[in-house]
Specification:
Layout lengths: L2 H24 L8 H14 L3 E3 L6 E6 L2 E11 L26 H16 L6 E9 L8 H7 L8 E12 L3 E3 L2 E4 L1 E10 L3 E2 L9 H19 L6 E10 L5 E2 L2 E10 L2 H21 L3 E7 L5 E3 L1 H14 L5 E3 L10 H4 L4 E9 L19 H18 L1
Parallel strand pairs: 3-4, 3-5, 5-16, 6-15
Antiparallel strand pairs: 1-2, 2-4, 6-16, 7-14, 8-12, 8-13, 9-11, 10-12
Helix pairs in contact: 1-3, 1-9, 2-3, 3-9, 5-6, 7-9
Bound molecules: nickel (II) ion.
Length: 391
Amino acid sequence: MQTETLNSAVEQTREEVVNWRRYLHQHPELSFQEEKTAQYVYDTLQSFGNLELSRPTRTSVVARLIGSETGKVLAIRADMDALPIQEENTFKFASQNPGVMHACGHDGHTAMLLGAAKILSGMKDKIKGEVRFLFQHAEELYPGGAEEMVQAGVMDGVDMVIGAHLWAPIEIGKVGVVYGAMMAAPDTFWITVKGKGGHAALPHDTIDSIAIAAQVVTNLQHIVSRNTDPLDNLVVSVTQFIAGTTHNVIPGAVEICGTVRSFDAKLRESVPQLMERIVKGITEAHGAGYEFKYQCGYRPVINDEQVTKVIEETVLEAFGEGTLYMMKPNMGGEDFSAFQQKAPGTYFYVGAGNKEKDIIYPHHHARFTVDEDALEIGVKMFVHAACKLLG
Ligand code: NI
């Protein structure tokens, strides 16, 4: 397919894509509750023609574009859910749902994939193989929508899968590509240190859960600094420490929770034991008890070498060298990894920040937004990559 044909098609859908994004931004829905969003996506896809639509789960949508010639099957994924945040942006299309906001750019992902579906469905007779558009619910909330969609069979017969995240930390005009491990496995832990409460003036009659829990927190830091290989990537962060009611009472218990991030499966498996050994040892040493709970979250996002190579080439061919931004992995989590379990796949970033336009707020911030010029870049990436990957 000719580059110019694709590029002019991208340009023609530009305004529509922005409008879809604004509509979705105005009507955000939380994870697993994307009823209206899914219906909107379904209706919009239906208006394109040439697509076989289905609803694999209550709030997800799949569109299949089956080309005139047989060939490979490429899946492209966009997530559609919003976050429980009260939007502080004041633009006209700010959220109309109190306390709910598209603060991660998933509105843009959905709009970009609609744009790609519109363009590619108009070229059905030139498509070899199949493009399967996956509009996924609930990326933000474990156990995540991706796994549910995979269970429903959306990846059956798929040879490759790609997806993208609009990324505000990267300036507009760049596309971020990572080979291999890209995003971490985000696990969660909960610890209760069980002491014995009592009068703060009589500590000898208590088992001071605060003093013991403080040691637990400090010693958990020894896992990364002393127990695991410095060349392996690992994060252990305590993010909550809940204890006490007032100044003269030693509380009976302390609740601690936090997150563990890793790439390597073996290392990941070893962490709960290392943690529990510390919790057990310290609480026992001081006559306290404990509870320890560890929950494995999404798998890490590991990009496939060959698909990533094609994505890198797509950036170079569709935009040029100045757009390509080879990136380091980060310790965030993404359930795109569920699709990668079923087919080789690559996730990439589309730069969406712009200091000049004051688009500087981080993801999940009440004033987060994206530079809408990034939408066109995302659509262009999808359609060019689709043509390249399907040959
Ligand atoms: Ni996100």
